[in-house]
Amino acid sequence: MNAASVLQLMLPSFCLCVLMVGMLSYLGIHVIKREIIFVDLALAQIAALGALLGFLLGIPLHTQASFWFSVALTAIAAAVFTLSRTRESRVPQEAVIGLVYAIAAAAAIILIDKAPHGAEHIKDILTGSILWVKWPTVQAVALVYLVIGIFHFVFRRPFLLISDDPEAARAHGLNVGLWDFLFYLSFGFVITISVGSAGVLLVFVFLVAPAVMATLITDRLIYQLLFGWALGVLATITGLVVSYVADLSSGPLVIGAYAVALVAVSAILFNVRASNRAKALKQTGAIALAFALCLALLVGVGRAVGARLKGALHSHAHTAAVEPGHAAAEARDDAPGIHASGEVSPEDLPAVLAETRDVARLADLFDQFPEPQARADVVLRSLELDTAAGAALALRFLAEQPPLFFAETVVNQLDAHLPNPSGFDVSQPFDAAVNQEAAARITSELGLRR
Q1: Which domain holds residue 95?
Q2: Which long-range CB contacts under 8 A does 169-176 form with residues at least 24 apart?
Q3: How many CB atoms lie within 10 A of CB 227?
Q4: Is-above-0.70 flag for pTM?
Q5: Domain finish residue from 290, 308, 326
Q6: Which residues have C-beta within 8 Å of that of residue 262, sequence separation ≥ 6?
Q7: 344: which strand partners?
Q8: What is the pLDDT of residues 169-215, one digit of tens each?
Q9: Looking at the 3D structure of the chain, how many domains does it have?
C-alpha cells in the first residue's frame, strides 16, 4: 500500500484522536482537581452496558438509537454521582464511583453471556476499533464535542470554581448539586460517543494521561490545556503509526505510547527541577538500569521455565507416538496441526495459513472454521494470494453479518486490493441497498459468479 493510501486510511482515525485528546484532556483536568480519577472508567462502563443492553433488546450497535440508550443510562449514573457528593458524607466519592464501575462491569459480563459473539463484544468495548473509523463518525463526534465545548466555555466559571473549591462555590451561592449533575451529564455525553470508537481503556487514557502530564508541568490552566493537547497528539500519532507498521491493535499501542510519554515527562521534569542535576541523572540511570535488569531476569526465567515444560511435553508426546497403536499420531509429526482427517486445529491455523498457497484449500478452511476471527484471517490470506478468490470469500463473510470489528478489517483489506473502493458500509446490513450495489460492483469488476 502506497503512502497516499496509508494516509487516506489513517486520516479519519488521526482526526478523531486529535478531537478526543482536546476534549478529554480538558475534562481530565477537572477530574484530577475533583479527585475522581475513575469516574471516566465508571461512566464508560455504564455507556458500554447501555449499548449492550440495547443490543439484547434489539437495538443495533453503533446506531443513534444505541447512543441515546447509553446516554439515558449515563444520565442515571450522573444523578448517582451527584447525590454521592455531599458535605457530610463519610464515604469518599471515589468509593461510590468504584462500586458503580464494578456493578456495571459485572452486569455487562452477565449480559455478554447472552449475546452472540460475546468475546468479540468484550474486545470491542475494551479496545474499540479506532483505526477503522469513517468520516461520518468523526463528524458526529465533532458535533457532540462542539456542543459540549460551547456549554463548558459559557459556564466555565462555575465549573472551574466547583472543581477547585466546592466550599468557596457554596459561599458564592452556587447550587453545587445542580452544577455537579450538569458536569456529569455533559461528561457522560462525551464518554458515550467516545467509547463507541476508542473503547473503554483508550478513552480513560485520553482523559487522564494528558491531564497528568500537563499538571506535572504547570499549574496554569491555559498552559495545561496546551501541553496536554500537544503531548497527547504526539503520543497518539506515535501509537497509530507503530500499530500500522507492526500490524498490531491500535488501541493498546496508543496506550503504550502514552505510558512511554508519561515516564519520559516524569524523568525529564525530575532531572530539570533537581537541585543537583548530576546526582538526579545518576539516580534516573540507576532506576532505569534496575528496571531493565528485573525485566530481563523475568523474561529469562520465563523462557527457561517455558522451554523446560515444553521439552517435557514434547518428550511425553514422542513416547506416546512410538507406542504400538499410535501410527497415525507418528504420521502427523510430519504435518503439525493437521489431523488424520485433514482438519486443522484452531491453535495451528495461523501457521497453516502462512504456508498455504492454494486458494481452494483456503475455501475449505473457511468452511471448517465458523468463528469470525478465524474466517476473517482466512479471507485476508486469500486476498493476499488471489484478489478474485479473496473477494468471493469476503462477500460470503460479510453476508453473515459478522461483528463490526471483523467486518471493518475485511472491508479495509478488500478495498486495498481493489482498483477502486468497494463502497461497502459495514454499519449497514448486508442486504441494504448501498451494500448490495457494492457487492454487485465487486462481482462485475472481478468477474465473479453471484
Answers
A1: 12-208
A2: 170/87, 176/85
A3: 21
A4: no
A5: 308
A6: 209, 212, 213
A7: 338
A8: 888 888 988 999 999 999 989 988 888 777 778 888 888 899 999 99
A9: 3
